């Protein structure tokens, strides 16, 4: 199946081309054959008389038009696949915010960009709204190679950036692309080194023969044998760190009363995986079903099912 006026998008190996390529897969534009992706080398794009890459080439009434703006190219893809409203901005304010990210990201050094994104994401799940937008894809394409080269220590110091990258790379329509193109970054569980934890457990206190230290040691042994009762509200610092919990923003796509309970709702929640999660919530007596339908929620995605 071909289209006489199908747009051709010439892409290279740069970050801007990667962003366009991800959007083409995310919006299913390639599967629906509304655009044609042309992988172009530097020599080939000179032969095509293209000033830069990526480039969108369209024709109308025998005339050829070329657009080199990554934002305009992504916007064109979104229009063809009906992703425009949610992906490039639902309002003029959001569109302006997304466009400002495009302008800033291209000019920034990767190290500076990583720090800026980390700060921007302190109180946000995504850069320019409550859902993934073109700004997230564009930033992800420009930072992922740098992030993959960071050490575990560096990643732990950019936890907001890492959380956001993990959310993007596991989004529906992006995860398979990330795997196929070796873009996946390590999981949160890999940030903790089991060997270092074992060393901490096995570390023994140094011997000290002074009387004062012996008294303190004896006192400590008594406290160890007779631990004080835990006070109400006291935090157990031996518990697993909360950073290991894989929190995801989810969209409740369907909700219905539990057939065997007057207290539970059954919810089908999209958290960016191949299939929605089935999760029950005890809100039937508290929140009307129409309020829960289409709500955005936080899901702890890596807890054991009960």
TrEMBL record:
Which keywords label this protein?
A: RNA-binding, tRNA-binding
Gene3D superfamilies, per this entry?
Answer: 1.20.1050.10, Nucleic acid-binding proteins
Q: What is the residue range of the signal peptide feature?
A: none
| Top-rank taxon | Eukaryota
Bias class Basic and acidic residues marks the residues at 198-211
Segment Disordered: which positions? 198-235
Q: What spans are recorded as compositionally biased (Low complexity)?
A: 218-230
May I have one GO cellular component term? protein-containing complex
Residue ranges of every copy of the TRNA-binding domain listed in the record: 241-306
Q: A GO molecular-function term, please?
A: tRNA binding
What sequence ranges are listed for the domain GST C-terminal? 45-196
One Pfam assignment:
Arc1p_N_like
Q: Which InterPro entries match?
A: Arc1-like_N (IPR053836), Glutathione-S-Trfase_C-like (IPR010987), Glutathione-S-Trfase_C_sf (IPR036282), NA-bd_OB-fold (IPR012340), tRNA-bd_dom (IPR002547), Tyrosine-tRNA_ligase_regulator (IPR051270)
Listed PANTHER family: AMINOACYL TRNA SYNTHASE COMPLEX-INTERACTING MULTIFUNCTIONAL PROTEIN 1, TRNA-AMINOACYLATION COFACTOR ARC1 FAMILY MEMBER
Q: Can you say what this protein is called?
A: Uncharacterized protein
Query: From what organism does this protein derive?
Result: Euplotes crassus
Q: What is the lineage of its organism?
A: Eukaryota, Sar, Alveolata, Ciliophora, Intramacronucleata
